[in-house]
Protein 1
Amino acid sequence: MLPITAYGHPTLRKKGENIDKDYPGLEKLIEDMFETMYESKGVGLAAPQVNRSVRLFIVDATPFEEEYPEAKDFKHIFINAQILREEGEAWEFEEGCLSVPGINEFVSRKPVIYMSYYDEKFNFHEEERFEGIRARIMQHEYDHTDGILFVDRLPSFKKLLLKRKLSDISVGKHKATYKMIYPKKKLKH
C-alpha cells in the first residue's frame, strides 16, 4: 500500500504532467494505486494523492451500486484525461477525500461530463460521456490532476469553518486508518 499525501502537501497543488506508455513502472503504479484505494476504503484515487505529479487516476464506483445502479462494475483507469465539457443542472453530493481524512462536505457539480482519455493499454477514448455518480467520482479525481481539492469548491464561509481541521490534517492530527505523507515542517530559527 502506498502512503497518501495529506492536505497541505505541495504535490496536491501541482498540475499533473501528461505521461506516455513508457512512464517508468506504470503498470505497477496502477496496481499499487488500486490496492491503496481498496485498503483505505476509497472509490477513486489520483496519482498526486500518492505523491506522483502526473495525470493518472483510477475509479471503482462499485460501493455505490445499491443506490446508483450505473455504478455496478464501473472500474476504470484514466490517463491524460481532459474534461471537454460538463452539462446539466448542478447537484450537491457529500464528498470526502483520502487526502483530507475526517472531512465530508456537500459539493455542487454538473451531472454529465464528456471526457477524452487514454486507458491502461493507451487506447484513446474520444469524447466519452459519463453521468451521475460515475461522473461525480471522475470529476473529483480529475480535479486532483489539476491541483484542485474538493474543499477548494466549498463556499468561503465553509472553508473558514474548516481552517483548523485542515491545519490539523496537514500536521498529522487526525484519525486516518492508513499511512500518510505530510508536508515538511518549516524549522524555526
Note: The mean pLDDT is 94.
Protein 2
Amino acid sequence: MRADMTTLDAGPAGSVELNDAIFGLDPRQDLIHRMVRWQLLKRMAGTHHAQDRSEVTVTGKKMFKQKGTGGARHGDKSVPQWRGGGKAFGPKPRSHAVDMPKKVRALALKHALSAKAKAGEIVVLDKASSVGKTKGLIDQLAKLELTNALFIDGAELEANFVRAARNIPNIDVLPVQGINVYDILRRRKLVLTKAAIDALEARFNKA
C-alpha cells in the first residue's frame, strides 16, 4: 500500500510504499493481547516479600504453659495467628515473566502495525528534526494535529528533536530498535519516519 509522506511543517514530501506483509495484515486481537501481557509481566519487578515465621523477630519462648490455661495450646509467637507473627504462604521475590517465542513476538508487532494502518492512525514523516525548542515543536505538531503520538525514527535519534519533545505531554520518541506493541497501542497516532520504515522492512526481511 502507498502512504503519503509529510514534513513536520505539514508540507507534502511525496509518498512511500508500505509493505503489505508488515502493514497490511488482518489484525489479530488475541495475538496483540498476548504480546502486551508478555511485556507487562516481564517488566514487573517481582520484589514483593512477606516475612514467614522463620524470619520475624520475636522470642522463641513458649507463650504460656501447655496445660491448665483453659485455652488452646501454643508455642512461640511467630505463628500467623498472632499479631507480629509471620505470614503463611506470603509473597516471595520471583519473576512474573511468561514465555513467548521470538517469532510470535515479531508477528505480534506486525499485527500491531497493521492495526494502526487499518485504523488510519499512521503518519509518515520524511525526517524527525527540530531546532531543539519545545514551543516550536508544539506549533509544528499542531499543524499535523498530533496531540497524542509515538514517534519512531531510525537507529539514531536527533538530539534536538528528543530535547524538544521530552517536555510535551503524551508525545513519546523511540529509535526503531525500541519499537514495541505496548507503546504503539498506548498512543493514538504512530508517526514513522522514512528511516524507520526502511529499518523495519530490513529487520523483518532478515527474519
Note: The radius of gyration is 27 Å.
Protein 3
Amino acid sequence: MRLNILVFDCGLNYAGSVILSDSIFLLKPNKPLIHQVVTSYRSNSRIAQSVQKNRASVKHSTRKPWVQKGSGRARAGMSSSPIWRGGGRAFPSSLYKNYSVKINKKVYKKALQYILSEFVTKDKLYVVNEVLALSTKAGLFLNSNKHLQKTPSLVVVEKSEMCVELFLALRNVRGISTMTYAEVNPYNLLLFNNAFFTLKGILKLQESL
C-alpha cells in the first residue's frame, strides 16, 4: 500500500509516497487480541501496595482461650485464628505478589500491527519528512495544523538524538509526545488520536515487525 509523505513547510502538503507492507498496515482489527495485550501490559506495570498480616504476624497470646472440653463452646487454640476478630488473614496480600502476565512476542507484534492498521484505515497515521520535522519552527507548524487539533498526538522518530531535538521543538505544544520507533508499544499507541512517523522511523518499525 502507499502512504502520503507529508511535510510541514506548507501545512502538511503532499510531498510523495512510501510503499509499506500490506501484511502489517492493512489488517482487519482483532479486538480480543488487542485487549489481551493491553491487559497484560497494565498488569505487568502493576505494583503490589497492600499488605495484610497472617496469623503468625498478628500480636496475640499463645494461651488457649478456654479449655478443650466442657465449656459448651467450639474448640479454640489461639486468638490469632482467621475466624476471630483481630486475628490474621487466611490468605493475606503481600508486597511480593506478582501480577505479571506473559505475552508471546508474536502475539505482541500482531497486536501492534492491528493497531497500526486501524490508524491507517481511520486516516490517523501520517508519514512526514524528518528533515523538516526537526526544524526549530516545527512546533509552530504542528500547533497551527488542522491534523493536530485532535490531541493527544504522537511523533515517532528513528533515533533518540532526533527525539531530543524534536522534543525541544515541540515542548511548548500541548498534547504532543515524542518517542523513537523502538519505544512504540500497543498500549501507548492507543493513548493518541493520531501518529506522525518520520520516513526512516516507520521503515525501521516495519523491519522490526
Note: The chain has two domains: 2-46+100-208, 49-97.
